[in-house]
From TrEMBL, chain A:
Its main location: membrane. The lineage of its organism: Bacteria, Bacillati, Bacillota, Clostridia, Eubacteriales. This is Branched-chain amino acid transport system permease protein. It comes from Desulfofundulus australicus DSM 11792. Coiled coil: none annotated. It is found in: Cell membrane. Keywords: Cell membrane, Membrane, Transmembrane, Transmembrane helix. It is a multi-pass membrane protein. GO terms for molecular function: branched-chain amino acid transmembrane transporter activity.
UniProtKB/TrEMBL annotation, chain B:
Signal peptide: none annotated. This is Branched-chain amino acid transport system permease protein. The keyword Transmembrane applies. Keywords: Amino-acid transport, Cell membrane, Membrane, Transmembrane, Transmembrane helix, Transport. The keyword Metal-binding does not apply. One of its GO terms (molecular function) is transmembrane transporter activity. It comes from the Bacteria. It is a multi-pass membrane protein. Belongs to the binding-protein-dependent transport system permease family. LivHM subfamily.
TrEMBL record, chain C:
Belongs to the ABC transporter superfamily. It comes from the Bacteria. GO terms for biological process: L-amino acid transport. Gene3D superfamilies: P-loop containing nucleotide triphosphate hydrolases (3.40.50.300). Residues 4-236 form the ABC transporter domain. It comes from Desulfofundulus australicus DSM 11792. Pfam families: ABC_tran. This is Amino acid/amide ABC transporter ATP-binding protein 2, HAAT family (TC 3.A.1.4.-).
From TrEMBL, chain E:
Coiled coil: none annotated. GO terms for cellular component: plasma membrane. Residues 7-239 form the ABC transporter domain. Keywords: ATP-binding, Nucleotide-binding, Transport. This is Branched-chain amino acid transport system ATP-binding protein. It comes from the Bacteria. InterPro entries: AAA+_ATPase, ABC_AA/LPS_Transport, ABC_transporter-like_ATP-bd, BCA_ABC_TP_C, P-loop_NTPase. Pfam families: ABC_tran (PF00005), BCA_ABC_TP_C (PF12399). SUPFAM superfamilies: P-loop containing nucleoside triphosphate hydrolases (SSF52540). GO terms for molecular function: ATP binding; ATP hydrolysis activity; L-isoleucine transmembrane transporter activity; L-phenylalanine transmembrane transporter activity; L-valine transmembrane transporter activity.
Length: 336, 293, 236, 396, 244
């Protein structure tokens, strides 16, 4: 029991506590909306990290899973009134299925071949979404996009007029994925994925069914990403194939994870939070001059990569360790 | 007749795609970096070429003598001052993901810089031959595309000779196979990287120049071509120069001929999924070495 | 004046000191052997001379000139050539291309034809296999090629890092013979070997490197008779 | 929510504007911004909003990047952070759809000058007002034009090829075309969507050439519009008529990139520089002076929108969103510069402007320069000009 | 000795394009043996390992483990059935610690992280890497990498261990240590097949030696028998063999 009052436990707890309290101090729906988006992006980056970081498979097509989750849950919601809460599970499962479908043919692909194959798949999927206006009698909107019906305040259908519930929902999702990553990092599967990332042939020789491990990783990653898609659908309430399944979405997810530090538990979270806030700030502060804000954003990414090639996690890890040490020291002193 | 026309058009366009893919495959083969800024460089060259034509009346093909060296320099400096530090930090990594991300960041910065400075207009050099076509009975062959195709072939040939025959070309290939040992051969690896990136960028520039008489430049024009170039490079086999050209021709042909039998949007789907199916059979592309990866 | 002079160098990987105050010198025409346990720092020493690693303190002189601040390619241009541990050929290039790359430096390029002839007479196997892709060759052939490639650079100082590693006994004697032949042509040689007995038989002088420091040096004979060497490296 | 203060203390009125200011639609976003700025400068220079004590309008621009999610975030920000009185935008229907929903939720009026997707005003929203015509209205007029020409010139039109970009806008257009062409008894021989921003449209053109349709109708943004036009020229495709659907064909850049190739093409829009309406010439001239190129219909709608808003603010006399909404709903503008767009501006129940004036222009080379010449309907036509029908061919 | 046959190769052949790397090879390994596999460079030794461990599928012939036909099984399936191997070109998971590397192997027999760690530490003791358990694998020297290679394979609790030149690059003193280590492993009940060019060690360890040349078995027998076989001397040892 004593262990639980070490900084290693109470610092994260403190962080979570602060995150929980934020809505009490911020009333601006816009800021809450942005903060929900920030947490949401951190969540997506973490979900990607399962396959892109731990297993080292650079997927550049994760938008597909966001879209799958979003479309499946929204279609079920609009057509048979299925609550997106259930849609989350079904959307996630469908995304996971897609993850396996993409994962299977790409099993033998390594490195850049895999990365670019996922680009091809995602593009193909996006074009299909654009070209499909109906699935059976269900209207999907094609390129016109799909408007998620607005019910007003309907918590049972994941719709709220206030931003606070969205914020908490994003926070919960993020905590779940971080908890999962933390577990994964220490589990057999995590060890296996890391081994595959480092050297797939050697992993095979150690009895690892690399194909299965990769498919499990792909399915898990796609599942969580798909769940994120369901959230996105209810937050934005409009699904547009280019925006949701396009390269911008897919690349953004990867950006965040890598800038933060891929293959680590908290790297993608940090990347998601940092970059999203920076992107938002530059856009708001510099959108008078056409292009300026994205120019600055690009430059900032470039500088991050040059100066912190292993990810922003480096920036946070050391001071955090120091802080833990310091607090630890003080506790010991205090105890004596 | 229609099919013949579309075959010809597919081949002509395919050559240009191949030219663009060649630079991408070169950079990958030697530095193991997927260069996401390739499309942005294409765009920069198109815009430069346009302005040279617009202000000085310089024919785009003549502007090669100015733009190719300029693009080379741009690539050279980009590698020297941005990619090199990242690569140095990722020395023992097989695939420098950081460098990949860096090029993606650069792409965003370059595109938006051009947007800031030159605005978002759609620019095209309407040269005398821009709309011209050679008509043989009902067959018409677009002159600017023919020029572009011929240029692509010539450049591909010269470039291939350069890689195979010259000292520097050999050094570049050697560096691509093992950069650690290349050092021990007296090769200045970081300079070779800069040159490779410079040449890759210049190739993107050439693709831009041959496009500008019949295609519109704007800050995000790179996006129109880059995904195609990615697919082509993988199809041909990463790092394979002739693979890039053949891949370009294949994609050009499918795009053009298949569109006669289905809508143009479905050809896109066909291309992407045929590509995946192909990779299933041949995971390292047409001419890629499975030993490389 | 010594051809190569290593003056009190220390080399680190990060925080870890791998070579500590190492000094050594090699005169023109000598065959020098460095022996030492695994992990003693032998490869590190060679890589530092080649410029792949930079000493934290101390310096290295070649022909009286400080080279420890130069880039690897500049050092190669001076004629300091290494045959790296584990051969490291360019796997997808032919035998011939591997050799051509060997003579990349401007000075060696001039003598390319003549050196190629020399390599082919020394290693007739390579002449037979000119067009074979390096990766498809057997271990022994690959080692031949690695040495031939180094010879193409017209070395003044040739450093070989465990050239007999993984070779069948018959091959080992062959390679060591070859080294002797090369030396006979006036190339100074720095040899790192686990096959201590064979190596010392071959060379004039030797250094024993242990835990990053030179603990012993002397003529081959002295070392062969040294009780510590006998026990630790010859297994006698 | 909104910035409801009493009129006495109002010094400036913030208006939020969501536009694509980066990405591939940035050029059109920029024109929209310029047109709005010019109008606001005029309004402020003329003493601002008098019923609010001469309060000045302050424009706040937000870049949607053409991305719906960004559009939503910006709508949230404009409303809750900037506390704008109302919003205009968002050029693309795809961004407008979710962004207007945000406004509806906060009960902040949203004026849409350009986006034409039908459904925007068909969702029962109360705070969304659209100045633009619906996409299908254009289709209806285009078909009427074809029938009219066929009769007038005695050239029967039987077959039509539809070429459209595969986006919200294009897919919306094709629905209208199908409906009205069917009603008119015309046969669609080709329905060809293509991916927006194509690298090569030759395959599409070759396909059309094979089928030899009587009329070719197109729906494209400028890069594809120009590419199509030039490729048709290269392959000398010769139907009775080429008809564009505004957007790219109405973009000032279009002439620059197509040159003579576009001569004799038709386009549908709501405004043309030569249109016979009050204020048209003057405003366009001023715009040309200021920015170096003429207005297009979308610029005019953006410009007009600011005057519609001004009028509503004057009548509302307050920044209370409910008051503004009510004023907008009661708009009945029949005088002033808005005349250049429509002689009468009224919104129906759904917030849709009724009777948006649609006209057809033909591209003609006059004194060595390409111009858009209004040719239909006859009463709006440039005096002395008539449609050239059928398409005379490429060897001109 | 009525020992049980653990592994049997029956007429195994593999061709790479025109090259027959292993040709009509048959042999048996009995439970509890240490057998040496020697031969000139390129004779096909490593290829035999790759065949047994499932990296390659034989063009012809079958492979049996404990009487079960394992021909064509995937490497991981074969590992599950109890064959561990090391690679001639060592392949550590470079970016991870020594302990992490070995735990990956240990996870084959458990799902529990704690148990896997215990097993890994035990193995590290055995191979003498315990003190370096937290070092990143890529920073190990060649010997230590070879030890790690053995440790990883051992952690999978194999019945049969295939060792590919684990002694190469060691000096005589180190060879002695390593030989001792292999004996320990053998003692713990593991059957061993080893490829080795360091003849002294191969002879000291092996109860039986097979000699491969051009993919064919040219000799088999006790170390003494084999090394005095003229064919072996000609193909492998060379005429001036026998100095050290
Ligand atoms: N890249 C590296 N980073 C950190 N430490 C390293 C690195 N490379 C080698 N070392 C360490 O430096 C020491 C010396 O290594 P070196 O390779 O020079 O030894 P060696 O004498 O050549 O051994 P071997 O006979 O195994 O080749 C070893 O302890 C090794 O673990
Ligand atoms: N995948 C492959 N493709 C083509 N040839 C191969 C392949 N693997 C091995 N070979 C060839 O098969 C032959 C046997 O190789 P192998 O690696 O088994 O030799 P070895 O006996 O282990 O030699 P060494 O003692 O040098 O390690 C060699 O000629 C080699 O080039
Ligand atoms: C081009 C415009 C007339 C159409 C508008 N951009 C839309 O998306 O609805
Ligand atoms: Mg070494
Ligand atoms: Mg072997």
């Amino acid at each position: 029991m004593r262990n639980f009052i070490t900084p290693r436990y109470y610092l994260p707890a403190l962080m979570i506590f602060i995150l929980l309290l934020i809505p009490l101090f911020i009333s601006s729906p816009y800021i809450l909306h942005i903060m929900a988006m920030v947490l949401f992006w951190a969540y997506l980056a973490s979900a990607w990290n399962i396959v892109g970081g731990f297993a080292g498979q650079l997927s550049l097509g994760h938008g597909v899973y966001v879209a799958a989750g979003a479309y499946v849950s929204s279609l079920l919601f609009a057509n048979i009134g299925l609550s997106p809460w259930f849609g989350m599970i079904i959307g996630g499962l469908v995304a996971a299925l897609l993850g396996v479908i993409v994962g299977y043919p790409t099993l033998r692909l390594r490195g850049a071949y895999y990365a670019l194959a996922t680009v091809g798949f995602a593009e193909g999927f996006r074009v299909i979404l654009i070209n499909t206006t109906k699935i059976g009698s269900w209207h999907t909107g094609g390129a016109e996009g799909f408007l998620v019906p607005l019910l007003g305040d309907a918590p049972q259908h994941m719709q709220f007029m206030s931003k606070v519930p969205y914020y908490y929902l994003a926070l919960v999702l993020l905590l779940i994925i971080v908890g999962f990553s933390f577990w994964l990092d220490r589990s057999k599967l995590g060890y296996y994925l890391t081994a595959i990332r480092e050297d797939e042939d050697a992993a095979l020789a150690l009895g690892i069914n690399t194909a299965r491990a990769k498919l499990i990783a792909a399915a898990l990653s796609a599942f969580f990403t798909g769940v994120g898609g369901v959230y996105y659908a209810q937050l934005i309430r409009y699904l547009e194939p280019n925006a949701i399944a396009g390269a911008i979405m897919s690349n953004q997810i990867v950006f965040l994870a890598i800038v933060g530090g891929r293959g680590t538990v908290l790297g993608p979270v940090i990347g998601g939070i940092f970059l999203t806030i920076i992107g938002e700030m530059t856009r708001i502060l510099f959108d008078q001059v056409m292009g300026l804000h994205l120019f600055l954003y690009g430059i900032i990414v470039v500088l991050f990569v040059i100066f912190k090639p292993r990810g922003l996690i480096e920036l946070v890890e050391k001071p955090y360790e120091k802080l833990v040490k310091m607090l630890n020291g003080r506790r010991v002193e205090g105890a004596s | 007749m229609g099919v013949l026309s579309s075959i010809i058009n597919g081949i002509l366009m395919g050559g240009v795609y191949g030219l663009l893919a060649m630079g991408l495959t070169l950079i990958f083969g030697i530095m193991k970096i997927i260069n996401f800024a390739h499309g942005a460089f294409l765009m920069v060259a198109m815009i430069l070429s346009y302005w040279l034509w617009k202000i000085m009346g310089l024919d785009p093909y003549l502007s090669i003598i100015i733009i190719a060296p300029l693009m080379f320099l741009l690539g050279y400096l980009t590698q020297r001052f941005t990619i090199k530090p990242v690569l140095d930090a990722e020395k023992d990594v097989r695939e420098p993901i950081g460098a990949l991300l860096l090029t993606a960041g650069l792409a965003v910065a370059i595109e938006n810089f051009i947007l800031m400075v030159f605005g978002a207009d759609y620019l095209m050099a309407k040269t005398a031959y821009s709309g011209a076509s050679i008509n043989i009975s009902s067959l018409s062959i677009s002159v600017p595309r023919l020029y572009a195709f011929v240029t692509s072939l010539v450049v591909a040939f010269l470039f291939y000779q350069f890689l195979i025959k010259t000292e520097l070309g050999r050094a570049m290939r050697a560096t691509g196979q093992d950069r650690g040992v290349a050092l021990l051969m007296g090769i200045n690896v970081s300079k070779v990287y800069s040159i490779a990136f410079g040449i890759g960028t210049a190739l993107a520039g050439l693709a831009g120049i041959v496009l500008i008489p019949f295609y519109y430049a704007h800050p995000s024009v790179g996006a129109v071509f880059i995904t195609k170039a990615f697919i082509i490079v993988v199809l041909g086999g990463l790092g394979s120069v002739h693979g890039a050209l053949v891949g370009g021709l294949i994609i050009g042909l499918i795009e053009s001929v298949a569109a006669q039998y289905m809508t143009a949007t479905w050809t896109a789907i066909l291309i992407y999924f045929a590509f995946l199916a192909f990779l299933l059979l041949k995971p390292s592309g047409l001419f890629g070495s499975r030993y490389e990866w | 004046m010594a051809l190569l002079e290593i003056d009190n160098i220390s080399v680190y990987y990060g925080e870890m000191c791998v070579l500590r105050d190492v000094s050594a010198q090699i005169d023109s025409g000598e065959i020098i052997c460095v022996v030492g346990a695994n992990g003693a720092g032998k490869s590190t020493l060679i890589n530092t001379i080649s410029g792949l690693l930079k000493p934290k303190t101390g310096k290295i002189l070649f022909n009286g000139e400080v080279i420890s601040k130069l880039e690897p390619y500049q050092i190669v241009e001076k004629g300091v050539i290494q045959v790296p541990e584990g051969r490291r050929l360019f796997p997808n290039m032919s035998v011939e291309e591997n050799l051509l790359i060997g003579s990349y430096t401007p000075t060696s390029r001039k003598k390319r034809k003549e050196n190629m002839e020399k390599v082919f007479t020394l290693l007739p196997r390579l002449a037979e296999r000119r067009k074979q892709i390096a990766r498809t060759m057997s271990g022994g052939e690959q080692q031949m090629l690695a040495i031939g490639r180094a010879l193409m650079a017209d070395p003044k100082l040739l450093m070989l890092d465990e050239p007999s590693l993984g070779l069948a006994p018959k091959m080992v004697s062959h390679v060591l013979e070859l080294i002797q032949n090369i030396a006979a042509q006036g190339v100074t040689i720095l040899l790192v070997e686990q096959n201590v007995y064979h190596a010392l038989k071959l060379c004039n002088r030797g250094y024993v490197l242990e835990n990053g420091s030179i603990t012993l040096m002397g003529t081959a004979e002295e070392l062969l008779n040294n009780p510590h060497v006998k026990k630790a490296y010859l297994g006698l | 929510s909104g910035g409801g203060k009493s009129s006495g203390e109002v010094k400036e009125i913030k208006i939020g504007n969501i536009l694509p200011l980066s990405g591939s639609a940035a050029p059109v976003g920029k024109i929209g911004q310029q047109a709005r700025d010019m109008a606001v400068e005029e309004i402020n220079a003329a003493g601002g909003i008098k019923s609010l004590g001469g309060a000045k309008i302050k424009m706040i621009y937000a870049d949607s990047k053409g991305d719906p999610a960004t559009g939503v975030a910006e709508a949230e920000r404009l409303i809750t952070q900037e506390r704008v009185a109302l919003i205009t935008g968002a050029y693309q229907s795809g961004v407008t759809l979710p962004a207007t929903e945000v406004a509806e939720r906060y009960k902040v009026p949203f004026v849409c000058p350009v986006p034409s997707e039908d459904v925007i005003t068909e969702r029962g929203f109360k705070y969304v007002f659209r100045l633009a015509e619906k996409t299908t209205w254009r289709n209806r007029e285009q078909v009427r034009f074809i029938q009219d020409m066929a009769k007038k010139f005695g050239t029967p039109v039987k077959t039509v090829a539809l070429i459209y970009e595969n986006t919200a806008w294009g897919q919306g257009a094709v629905k209208g075309w199908e409906k009205y062409l069917k009603e008119a008894g015309l046969k669609i021989v080709l329905k060809e969507p293509y991916p927006a921003n194509s690298s090569d449209l030759t395959p599409v053109v070759l396909k059309v050439k094979q089928l030899k349709p009587d009329v070719i109708m197109m729906c494209s943004y400028v890069s594809d519009a120009a590419l199509l036009t030039n490729t048709f020229a290269e392959h000398k495709v010769k139907p009775l008529a080429f008809i564009g659907t505004s957007g790219g064909f109405a973009d000032p850049v279009y002439f620059k990139t197509t040159g003579d190739n576009s001569e004799y093409f038709f386009d549908i829009s709501t405004w043309e520089p030569d249109v016979n309406r009050p204020f048209s010439k003057e405003v366009n001239e001023k715009f040309k002076q200021k920015y170096g190129y003429p207005m297009n219909a979308e610029a005019v709608k953006a410009y007009t929108a600011m005057y519609v808003i001004k009028d509503a603010l004057e009548r509302a006399g307050s920044l209370d969103p409910e008051a503004i909404r009510k004023a907008l709903a009661e708009t009945k503008l029949t005088s002033g510069v808005t005349q250049m767009y429509a002689s009468e501006i009224i919104f129906d129940e759904s917030g849709q402007m009724v009777n948006a004036p649609l006209i057809i222009s033909q591209f003609r080379k006059i004194n060595g320069k390409m111009e858009r010449v209004t040719v239909w309907p006859e009463k709006e036509a440039r005096p002395g000009w008539k449609p050239v029908w059928p398409f005379p061919g490429w060897d001109k | 000795m009525p020992a049980k046959v653990l592994l049997e190769l029956k007429n195994v052949t593999i061709k790479f394009g025109g090259l027959t790397a292993v040709s009509d090879l048959s042999f048996k390994l009995f439970e509890g043996e240490i057998v040496g596999l020697i031969g000139p460079n390129g004779a096909g030794k490593t290829t035999v390992f790759n065949l047994i461990s499932g990296v390659y599928r034989p063009t012809e012939g079958e492979i049996y483990l404990n009487g079960e036909n394992i021909t064509g099984l995937k490497p991981f399936q074969i590992c599950h059935r109890g064959i561990g191997r090391t690679f001639q070109v060592v392949r550590p998971f470079g970016g991870k610690s020594v302990l992490y590397n070995v735990m990956v192997g240990a996870f084959l027999r458990t799902n529990d992280t704690r148990k896997s760690r215990e097993k890994a530490l035990e193995v590290l003791q055995l191979v003498g890497l315990y003190n370096k358990k937290d070092v990143l694998a890529k920073n190990l020297t060649i010997v230590d990498r070879k030890r790690l290679e053995v440790a990883k394979a051992l952690a999978t609790e194999p019945k049969l261990l295939l060792l590919d030149e684990v002694l190469a690059g060691l000096n005589p003193a180190e060879v002695d240590e390593a030989v001792e280590m292999i004996r320990q492993i053998h003692k713990s009940g593991i059957t061993i097949l080893l490829i080795e060019h360091v003849l002294k060690a191969a002879m000291a360890l092996s109860q039986r030696i097979m000699v491969l040349d051009y993919g064919k078995k040219i000799a088999e027998g006790s170390p003494e028998e084999v090394t005095s076989n003229p064919e072996v001397i000609k193909a492998y040892l060379g005429d001036n063999y026998g100095i050290a």
